[in-house]
Amino acid sequence: MTAHIASLPADRASPALDTRIVLEVEGLSLSLRNADGLLPIVTDVSFAIRQGEAVALVGESGCGKSITASAIMGIAPDNAEIGGTITLNGQAISGLSPRARRKLCGRHMGFIFQEPMTALHPTLSIGRQMTDTLRHNLGLSHAEATSRAAQLLDRVGIPRARDILKGYVHELSGGMRQRVMIALAISCGPSLVIADEPTTALDVTIQAQVLDLLDDMRRELDLAMLFITHDLEVVGDFCDRAVVMYAGDVVERGLSADIVRSPAHPYARGLIDAVPDHDDGRTRLTPILGTVPPVGQWPPGCRFAPRCNRVDAQCRTRPALELHGSTEARCWHPLEPSA
Amino acid sequence: MLRYLGKRFLLILPTIFVPLILVFLLLRLSPGDPAGMMLGDQATAEQIAALRSQLGLDQPIWIQFLLWLKGIVTLDLGNSIFFREPVMQIIPRYAGVTILLTLVALTLAVIIGITLGLVTAMNRNKPIDRGVVTTAVLGISLPEFWFALLLIFIFAVTLRWFPVAGYNPPSAGIVAFGATIFLPALALGVRQSALMTRMMRSSMLDVLNEPYITTARAQGLPESTVIGRYAMRTAAMPVVTVAGLSAGYMLGGAVAIEIIFALPGLGRMLVEAVGRRDYPLVEGGVLTISLVLAVLNLAIDVIYAILDPRIRYQ
Amino acid sequence: MTSEPMLAVSGLSKSFKAVKAVRDVTFSIPRGKTFGLVGESGSGKSTTARLVLRLVEPTDGTIRFRGRDLAGLSPGDLRRERRHMQMIFQDPFGSLNPRMSIRDTLTEPQLVHGIGSPAEHLRTAERLLAEISMPRTALDRYPHEFSGGQRQRIAIARALSTNPELIVADEPVSALDVSVQAQVLNLLRDLQDKHGTTMLFISHDLRVVQFMCDEIAVMYLGEIVEQGPREHIYGAPAHPYTQALLASAPGKGAGKRARLKGEIPSAHAVPSGCAFRTRCPSAFERCAIEKPLMRDIGNGQKAACHLLDEAKAA
Q1: Which residue spans traverse the membrane (chain B) (predicted)?
Q2: B76 touches B86 (CB < 8 A)
Q3: From chain C, which residues contact A within 8 Å (Cβ)?
Q4: Which residues of chain C fall short of a pLDDT of 50?
Q5: Which of A35, B214, C150, C166 could disulfide-link C85, Cβ–Cβ 3.0 to 4.6 Å?
């Protein structure tokens, strides 16, 4: 069941290897049905997250990372056709009815969005949004839900929690909004929290605070965390393992420290090299040429091939995700691991 | 909140006075002289002049206007030239019907609009959606009087469910009142309900794409709560805004409806008073309609502020 | 060639009603160099950019551009001066007119500023397309046919079309994906080297600013708190805010470094004394009472912090 994790060399194991698996995604695919037929968005995504472990889903816009998260939550668009299996706490949930899936949300899975300003209701009070969730999922009374909501806000570092409960999202600063979002996501004691670019919309100093808070929550509550981001540097700092996606595909998978230090896939390498380096002066950046192919226009074989500088005839056939050095990569010509 | 309402009230004042000034001027600029009409063909020029000076019509227009404004403040709108009794006594006899007609029509339009808008948005591109949307386009393009005649033909003449015309006040019992007000109100509300259906549909479709709806779902809230509480609350706001405009259209449209259904309302009274050049009564009627519209719009502002906390603090 | 800087801003301030968005900003950019303004939201960096271009009228201060005081220019002179200063905006979707072909987009600024003949306009457009590595066929296409990175390259070409001496780039790569961001940054630097353009570069991203700029000013709540050559700002930051900003950037490991507490105060209520003191880990009594002045700390580096005085006195 956990072949891809077991296949990692023992000394490179995740710190959380001995805990139980909370989420397992196996061969997940997602297509959108439209007038012209089925449009593949995500193909063959597999990974697992253990209790207390943070796994990053990394990629640029349009790579399919956010829709993968929505498929896991069971909130993918109505016209989505989803294949593969999703297992949560040992229960296969991918075959469940939408109603049964909805019941897992909040109670077993929490969700944190990128832009808390729009992810929180504009005209319902913070307290109302939190108590609605607590009362529905945990069957609490209004008074119990209110006091629990205040405790939660307190826990995520919001001062004057009782006052904030009466307030609305537009009255809060960006950092406070995201703290409310985090409180909401963990409110019903989920075992898995999915955070979709949770700090992208925030200022640098606030970003650091929120990342620290997420990290604390994960440790204190022993959460399995799926961290969706485009920023490989954040991945290196906060995630145990990483799954790099490109054009709907998993192109590299492994310990995040390994991927950041010595990626095997040219795309992962490209992502790292494209970021201006802290310690470098006026040298040129190494961009990835061209742009991500739009959905529906993926090349056959390796989808990164048209932008890759290691491409050859073999890349016209689709490579498998295989172990190269310390990480797994979907590439015919992976990079040599650096010392 | 009080400050917000105070501000809204100040903004409403011009909507009361601008129509008044226009009507005042138009009446006096249009041909036809009340004194001549009252005295008939046989009157001499001296008699007409005497009556004109008695009615104050020989004064400059701006003096007449100031006198009339003074009358508003002292709650004395003068006497009807035709009925020869105070306007303040005539208006209430007619205003109740029009206000009730507009309120019932507005309520019907909002209920129909929000319900159909919700149903179509939830069944987007399915037959029921297409059917309702097509009908709504038809509804917007048909004039009220045509729809009124259609309703009379179907429900009053053919099915005999409702009386063809006439009016029972609420004091006659809710059933008797309802029977005479339902068809006129429906006829008056149908265009606006079609407008509100389309508005509600598109606003609901927008709201369903909002991230906070996804959040509500991701929190495990049942779909009934997500739609009924989280989506409706924001989606209904444009409809509430439109309801204020609709009330204005309806007060205007009431004229035709009152005539078709023989309702003793302000609209009919006004048409007759204009025909008789009964200046004080026309001005009193327009003032009443402006006031009703202002109060309705203020009520809508209150509802809006309750629905959207962001407004309250601005 | 004079040694006078291309742009010299002195004591620049801007208040919007009670909000002091920019306070006493002073810097200069030598010909051909890139000056970076870095800060978080509310720091006043974007307002400063608009002030420099006189898109917003300053409340106080002087802007000397090419040796002339922009404030003293007549509207006509200012318009003529604008061909020498162009702007690149953050949003490549909003900043290009969707109804203008790329040909029109690239020739219009030349037309507006009366540079050369139509044939020359087209030649310039073609040359610029080549410089941003786009085929000539792009001329007859429209912005929506291009990706975000391509649009931003077109926006750069448009900015260069009047052959300006100063380009103000406001968060030019913030809306782009990392791999595309690198392409655009490289392009900006190549073009700058080629044309010798002076640049005012605004970004919240420390990595991007470090890559692009020769000299950097760090802004906090409308003021410059530290300023100096790139290598010193990044190598030996003197102001606690600069230090915290650098420490907060990702890629430094998840260890518990000193984090700034709280958030940027509202510009409506700027703290007394040093604006940063409410979040400063080393704030002491004096910081609330007395506003720290910008002081020279050698190597062309300047910072406004009382700690620097204390260190010197000790």
Answers
A1: 9-29, 94-119, 131-159, 171-190, 239-266, 286-307
A2: yes
A3: 40-41, 147, 149-150, 177-183, 185-186, 189, 204, 206-208, 210-211, 230-231, 234, 244-245, 247-254, 256, 259-260, 263-264, 279
A4: 1
A5: C166
